[in-house]
Design a protein that fits this description.
alpha/beta
Length: about 250
């Protein structure tokens, strides 16, 4: 199953899958890191793998001219309905074949691990580079290999750990049938990949303290948020995701 086929099937349930306090914290940490590290405002932005529009809305609300690209038909329909009274431009397509002219965007985002789910990572990065303006910023998240290995160990899925380490991939989804391949990264492998094309690469740890199954931490919201942000440039191996911000 391709990633967009999976998301096409779960489009109606997608938003509610990330409504709990852990994922709210995850998104709050990501948003603070992003807006603390960009100096572009009111620019032209492309949201690749826009899903149901979570990040498109954030950038729209911050004054950006937002274009949303999404391959899953049901997600595209949701985007068009949800944002029909806004200036969001919605396109159906994939990151490996961006339907835009060279040097079109000030910022391109690929949140939700779009780079990990890419069918051709190098082609995707080349397409992003092509449509990004000089000194433009590419922002996104990827799945963290070391976190997947930790999770597999503590879930007693010992048989898949060495395979994940060797091939740097894992199945993600809601079941063995309803799943697709994700490409997994470490800090070093992500940095080396992006540094081939981009002149400046910054990588952050998103949720270095993972407490998805202990909602009690949400009672200490301010303290936890401060610590998640404080260690976002040091605790990489345990992070839920790795967030990259690179400059062309």
């Amino acid at each position: 199953m391709k990633s967009w086929e999976y998301y096409n099937k779960i489009a109606k349930e997608y938003d509610e899958m990330y409504e709990d306090s852990y994922w709210q914290m995850h998104n709050a940490v990501s948003e603070k890191i992003i807006f603390n590290n960009i100096d572009i405002s009111n620019g032209k932005l492309l949201d690749v793998g826009a899903g149901t529009g979570f990040w498109s809305k954030i950038f729209l609300d911050n004054g950006f001219d937002v274009y949303a690209l999404e391959p899953a038909e049901n997600m595209v329909n949701t985007l068009k309905e949800r944002f029909k009274k806004t200036n969001l431009k919605v396109f159906k397509g994939i990151g490996e074949n961006l339907p835009f002219e060279n040097s079109s965007f000030d910022i391109i985002i690929a949140m939700g691990d779009v780079l990990s789910y890419s069918e051709d990572i190098n082609l995707f990065i080349s397409e992003v580079y092509r449509v990004l303006k000089k000194d433009g910023i590419f922002i996104g998240t990827v799945d963290n290999l070391n976190k997947f290995i930790l999770d597999a160990f503590f879930s007693k899925e010992f048989g898949i750990i060495k395979s994940m380490e060797k091939f740097k991939t894992a199945k993600v989804g809601v079941s063995n049938i309803m799943s697709f391949k994700s490409n997994l990264f470490t800090y070093d492998s992500l940095y080396n990949l992006l540094h081939k094309k981009f002149k400046k690469v910054d990588i952050f740890s998103i949720m270095p303290f993972t407490w998805e199954f202990n909602e009690d931490f949400s009672k200490y919201w301010a303290d936890v948020l401060e610590l998640e942000l404080h260690f976002s440039k040091s605790f990489y191996d345990t992070a839920e995701h790795l967030l990259y911000m690179v400059v062309k």
